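REQUEST ID: PR-0412
SUBMITTED BY: lab tech R.K.
PRIORITY: routine
TASK: structure prediction, single protein chain
INPUT:
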Amino acid sequence: MKHFYLLLLMFTTYYINAQDTTGYQALADYPLTANLSDATGNFPDMDAEHIVFQNGGVYTNGVYYGHDSNTGSYVQTPNLATFDINDFIVKVDFKAAEIPSSSSMPVLTCGDSWRWIRFYVNNSGHLEYVGYHSNGQYFSGIVSNTSISVNTWYTIGLTYQQTTNSLKIYINNTLKETVTINNGFQHNNNFNFTNQDPGSGSVLKGYWRNLVIYKSVAGVDENIKMSLKIYPNPSHGKLNLQADMPIKNIRIIDATGREIIHKSVQSNLFTTNLAQQGIYFISVKLNNGQIITKKIINH
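STATUS: complete
OUTPUT:
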């Protein structure tokens, strides 16, 4: 019984602190495993220079293109004109090929000529963030309890709602930081997302994949909020998924951010087996573009 309550407490803690995309759907979805296209079809391909698709993502070499157009590399979305700066979720996977020896290395920059929030790996292997409140006031910090190792995939997730003035920062689907934003961001309508920082003249040396920018569907069309059943939960190895409409693809990662399953489905039903005990996060993309994230525990 003691073991059961300990397991229940651990599950509840993960559930409360995990990033949830229920009530949102993908505005733009760039898998970045073989090309630069938006899987939703809403926007043009990402812009890029001197990239390589390998190791399950797109690789940029750490040479800033603005300093060396012959070898410099980067990836960047077009300006997403319909992005809602007041209510959004952003998620991207990154893998650093090195920890910078002196300065910091960008892993996610929101904005182009005006960068309203940026994330870096510093020379201690910690993840820093910097940004601007709507009044132009600068804010910054270090993401709590997060240390970046080379050649390891991490997921950065951002959830922001202006109604609460809070930006939630997730690493590997676990809440790490909540930042108070004063009446929104100063953005100048720069809604690009990239792995470079023109301000510091630097770019990620490493990999990107699964960049997804979400929009809220709350109060817009209740019919688009399709239900998803995952059972049993907790599970004992076998896991079943059932949706109201065809499932386009499924992605399952463990609590460390390691991808366990990533496959196309095209069916309302999906069954799989989980070999290891622990916490898992399932991201299900439906044919209408909605992406639903759920948390499960496997005994």
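NOTES: The chain has one helix and 22 strands.
REVIEWED BY: pending
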